[in-house]
Automatic annotation (TrEMBL):
PROSITE patterns: B302_SPRY, FN3
Domain Fibronectin type-III: start-end pairs: 43-131
Classification via Pfam families: fn3, SPRY
Protein name in the entry: Fibronectin type III and SPRY domain containing 2
Native source species: Gouania willdenowi (Blunt-snouted clingfish)
Family annotation (PANTHER family): E3 UBIQUITIN-PROTEIN LIGASE TRIM36-RELATED, FIBRONECTIN TYPE III AND SPRY DOMAIN-CONTAINING PROTEIN 2
Xref: InterPro entries: B30.2/SPRY, B30.2/SPRY_sf, Butyrophylin_SPRY, ConA-like_dom_sf, E3_ligase_FN3/SPRY, FN3_dom, FN3_sf, Ig-like_fold
Keyword entries, A-Z: Coiled coil
Domain B30.2/SPRY positions: 113-306
Keyword Coiled coil on entry: yes
Length: 310
């Protein structure tokens, strides 16, 4: 680059890249020896928050993002604003942040290297008013379709795109729950004509087994028979003998890691249906399964009703 001044601006450099610069002086006689070389590292590109992969609960949030850089960066800073701004430094592309219950936070991320911080990512809003998660589409059975907002599960609707993942027998999908050992709550809207299973399972649960059939999953099952609607609460293939007289159309699921309980409720009646008592050895995922054509709609981000965690 030829310039007449004693300074210049170099443009079109790659982000998060190292460059060497040196200078020579030229007159009518000759070109001078090169100056000492200077090393310069450009700042990184701004990260991209993966909002569909983020999750939250009343006391924490899980934030995930893509680096946006080809070369590794040194670290990231997560900026959380709710009245005041505080910053958390992390080494990888995700972090769990402890937050206050019932608040709405603005969150963004920067990538950092020796050259300095990147521009801020797009700002997202994180709420701690309830438990919030997305469905893991990569875990879906090939027969299932997922609505565009990611919260309604269809079986047998050809108008919606099919997610092509091989699962042998259990027509199911998992949700990505935040890994926090607290109290978590969500609701599922169901149809009377649909046979379904709703519950939780460990990540290592075999995908070719039905929910509730092994000791790694727990579920509420609805079965249609010629004479009545039958409900089972299955774990390791066994269910207590219970009779539910009013068919629930909206089911509340309350998971309490500290007490080791998983409870189901008829939300419209505020009626307790059943509670599993178990010491969870690890974090579990919400599970949703359809045993015949129909649909389920997951509602999350809901504050747990007062009758659930007593």
């Amino acid at each position: 680059m030829m310039v007449k001044e004693t300074h210049c601006t170099v443009t079109d450099l790659l982000p998060n890249a190292q460059y060497e610069f040196w200078v020579t002086a030229t007159n009518t006689t000759a070109i001078s020896p090169a100056s000492e070389k200077a090393l310069y590292v450009t700042v990184p590109s701004r990260p991209v928050i993966k909002q569909r992969s983020c999750a939250s609960c009343p006391e924490a949030a899980l934030i995930r993002w893509d680096s946006g850089n080809t070369n590794p960066v040194d670290s990231y800073t997560v900026e959380i604003r709710e009245g005041v701004t505080y910053v958390v430094a992390v080494p990888s592309c995700q972090c769990v942040i402890q937050l206050q219950t019932g608040r709405h936070y603005l969150v963004c991320v920067r990538a950092v290297n020796v050259g300095g911080p990147s521009e801020r990512s797009e700002v997202i809003t994180v709420s701690t008013t309830g438990t919030f998660f997305y469905l893991l589409e990569e875990t879906a059975h090939p027969c299932l379709s997922i609505s565009e907002d990611g919260f309604t599960i269809f079986y047998g609707d050809e108008e919606l795109p099919i997610i092509n993942v091989c699962v042998d027998r259990c027509v199911a999908i998992l949700g990505d729950l935040i890994p926090v050992r607290g109290q978590l709550y969500w609701e599922v809207e169901v149809e009377d004509v649909t046979e379904y299973r709703i519950g939780v399972a460990y990540e290592d649960t075999e995908r070719n087994s039905y929910l509730g059939a092994t000791n790694t999953s727990w579920c509420m099952r609805h079965i249609l028979s010629p004479s009545r609607h039958k409900y089972e609460f299955l774990h390791n293939g066994w269910s207590p003998d219970l009779r539910i007289t009013v068919n629930p159309v909206r089911i509340g699921v309350a998971l309490d890691y500290e007490k080791g309980t998983l409870s189901f409720y008829n939300v419209n009646l505020e009626q307790h249906l059943h509670t599993f008592y178990c010491n969870f050895r690890n974090y579990v995922h919400p599970c949703f399964s359809l045993d015949n054509p129909g649909a389920l709609t997951v509602h999350n981000g809901i504050e747990a009703p007062g009758y659930t965690f007593i």
